[in-house]
Amino acid sequence: MPTILSLPISLSEPLPSEFSSDDVRYSERFVEYCLKTFSKQNDIIFDPFAGFGTTLLIAEKMKRTSFGVEIDKQRVDYITSKLNTKESIIHGDITNLSSIAMKNFDLLLTSPPYMNSFEQESPFDNFQSKSNYSEYLNKLEMIFQELEPFMNKGGNCLVEVANLYAEGKLTTLAWDIAGRLRKFMDLQREFIICWEGEELKENRGIYGYGYDHSYLLVFHKREESNSKKNSL
Ligand SMILES: C[S@@+](CC[C@H](N)C(=O)[O-])C[C@H]1O[C@@H](n2cnc3c(N)ncnc32)[C@H](O)[C@@H]1O
User: Fold this and answer.
1) Is residue 70 within 6 Å of ligand 1 at its C-beta?
2) What's the pLDDT tens digit per position in 14-49?
3) Which of 47, 78, 148, 176 is most buried, judging by how many CB atoms fall within 10 Å of its CB?
4) Domain parsing of the chain, residue ranges
5) Contact 186, 220 (CB under 8 A)
6) Which helix (DSSP H) or strand (DSSP E) does residue 46 occupy?
């Protein structure tokens, strides 16, 4: 299996004008690759940071059952307008899992909100509260640790993430997240995704975070780990 993938960064449809051009979605071709490689028809796919719903929309097209959580109401409304199965998107805060009607899933596919190590606002509540990089990593670890029991036996967790280069500083985000999540899931492999396309912003690389590539981290559920049998 090739571990260096070249994929176009382009998306089939622009976002409506009410959204900012800085709003980030991942590529549809990337989601198609992940679902084709790591899931089969009728598998349940989950995205805890649904964003504009790329995971859910492609999953629906590829006949997978899917659901996702997104904190931003405007994005939730956008996803609802695009999905046939409207109830697949849950408006909620994934840091407060007990408030969400969580179900079991076979594959988690997501790209979390990113944070540079020098930033001071939490990306988990739309930058409203103060935070720091270490708190951010702790919270991300907690979110995935709480979600892991909902992953069915044999399930995978796929995280798309880049290291970040901004203001002359490198944040090893991809490697730090790999280190946190492998505490309770098996990190099986990493893929390097080389993004093809026009440079988005001067000095920010094709991917927009100082690089032309990102990583697909593949975690596998541990054999000895327990699964939740039923939905909450
Ligand atoms: C990198 S974006 C995901 C983009 C998505 N993959 C797409 O293609 O549209 C991360 C998303 O996580 C959402 N988010 C941040 N904190 C959250 C939270 N506490 N609960 C649920 N969603 C959250 C953000 O609003 C953002 O839309």
Assistant:
1) yes
2) 899 999 877 789 999 999 999 999 999 999 999 999
3) 47
4) 24-160+174-191
5) yes
6) strand 44-47
